[in-house]
Structure of Transposase:
Amino acid sequence: MKNKKINEHQVLKVLKDYNAGKSGLELFEKYGVYGTNIFELKHKYKDLGMDILVELVNLNEENSRLKTMYAELCIQHRKLKDLLKEDF
């Protein structure tokens, strides 16, 4: 996780391990997250329970899937319009 944006999956894994009692050194070796970053993550997501964070991850995955589906449908729609335009 060094020098890159952290996503919800990684936040979930880091916070679960941290709450399970892993030390900062273990988390750094496993995820590359410094202690200050763990503190920032805890502060940022302190009001969210783990169940809500899991739901957030699921919603983001669903949103990504729907965006892809929408883009594919737009392409198909454009191709159909072009075909109809050629016929007339």
